[in-house]
Design a protein that fits this description.
392 residues; mainly alpha; Rhopdopsin 7-helix transmembrane proteins; L-tyrosine binding; G-protein coupled receptor 143; L-DOPA receptor activity; membrane; G-protein coupled receptor
């Protein structure tokens, strides 16, 4: 799981709240992390591999949104590998990990492993948060026709730059001036926790707003193609809206336990003695959410692929093909439909209106198809049931 408590545990003089959760059934906790991360890793890779039986339709051009979705999955995969490696070492070499608690020692490898593995996990998941924020920004810009593949360079600079900067800054403040003196007070820990949870809170606050504005812009685009809002276009808009909802639902499910757990542990840290009887329920709640974090945090990778693409099936095609952007067939067919002029136009204006309608429809369909990289099976059901698809 990904928690700033992983870094604070590397301090020999760690606080009592961190000691409480990290010493609670460590074998069980590491086993839970390994199991959850392994299942998520295998299912995520299975979801991303091409499947047999997919229709070999024409592939649309790549988009920044599809690249961002792939990068989010890669961050989850690498973060899951870090969890598996870290938990495996903890289970396989308990004596090696026990040396972290020794203040006066000459062996620096236990602390180096502790800090390095914790930073790897935090950095990858933090980068995933920034990429998710970039996806929400890119979705809105695509609908406004202000984004493209060129913007992916800016997203890379922002994502990796901010992720590395915040991670290094938080670690430097936590371990200043050395590992032996870190966690002597909250002035060391608070900046570290802020830099860790800042991108998470940004996604929770900003992404719903951006998604809502994107859905409204999509509805306006669909209405503007013919001046009416048909049933087929309404269903397409609903599919995009549901996709954004699933993304945020997965994010809230996987990370709300972290916020609850951190709130409880900070409250316990402020108490003179966390072992007091009146605090028993709070300690139990903190330990329960700690285990829940070990289950849900690694599962984000697989759950995100379900939100992005839906269930893609078990039949893997070893011959690699680029993933198709769904609704492309419907978008292409609607171009032809919308190219015809409105019956109310006079004959002298037919040629000009056809040219304008075709251009606007192509731009609209391109923006919609870029956003609509979701469940292929649901797309095929949608497009095959539409009169546009049948006529095409």
């Amino acid at each position: 799981m990904a928690s700033p408590r992983l870094e604070t545990y590397c301090c020999p003089n760690r606080d009592a709240a961190t000691q409480l959760v990290m010493n609670f059934q460590p074998e069980v906790f590491c086993g839970v992390c390994i199991g959850s991360a392994s299942i998520s890793l295998l299912l995520t890779i299975l979801q991303l591999l091409p499947k047999k039986g997919q229709s070999p339709r024409k592939m649309p051009k790549a988009s920044s949104s599809s690249t961002i979705l792939l990068l989010i999955s890669i961050c989850d995969i690498l973060g899951g590998l870090g969890m598996i490696f870290r938990s495996s070492v903890w289970l396989g070499f308990p004596g090696f990990i026990a040396n972290i608690s020794v203040s006066n020692r000459t062996d620096v490898w236990p602390s180096a492993f502790c800090v390095g593995s914790a930073m790897w996990i935090q950095l990858l998941y933090s980068a995933g948060f920034w990429w998710l924020f970039c996806y929400a920004v890119d979705s809105y810009l695509v609908v406004r026709r202000s984004a493209g593949l060129s913007t992916i360079v800016l997203y890379h600079m922002m994502t990796w730059g901010l992720a590395v900067m915040l991670c290094v800054e938080g670690i430097a403040l936590l371990y200043y001036p050395s590992l032996s003196s870190c966690e002597n007070g909250l002035e060391h820990a608070i900046p570290h926790y802020i830099t860790t949870y800042a991108p998470l809170l940004l996604v929770l606050v900003a992404n719903p707003i951006l998604f809502r504005r994107t859905v409204s812009a999509v509805a306006s685009l669909l209405k503007g193609r013919q001046g009416i809002y048909t049933e087929n276009e309404r269903r397409l808009g609903t599919e995009i809206q549901m996709r954004f909802f699933k993304i945020m639902l997965v994010f809230v499910i996987c990370w709300s336990s972290n916020i609850i757990n951190e709130t409880l542990l900070f409250y316990l840290e402020l108490q003179p003695d966390i072992n007091e009887i009146p605090l028993k329920n709070l300690r139990s709640a903190a330990l329960i959410t700690w285990i829940i974090m070990g289950v849900l945090n690694p599962m984000q990778g697989f759950l995100f692929t379900l939100a992005f693409y839906g269930w893609t099936g078990w039949r893997v095609d070893l011959k690699w093909r680029k993933r198709e952007i769904p609704w492309e067939s419907m978008s292409s067919s609607t171009v032809g439909e919308n190219a015809y002029p409105s019956p109310v136009n006079y004959q002298s204006n037919i040629h000009d209106s056809k040219k304008i309608s075709t251009t606007d429809s192509q731009q609209t369909d391109e923006a919609i198809s870029i956003l609509s990289e979701a469940n292929t099976s649901s797309d095929e059901r949608l497009t095959r049931s539409s009169p546009i698809y049948q006529g095409w």
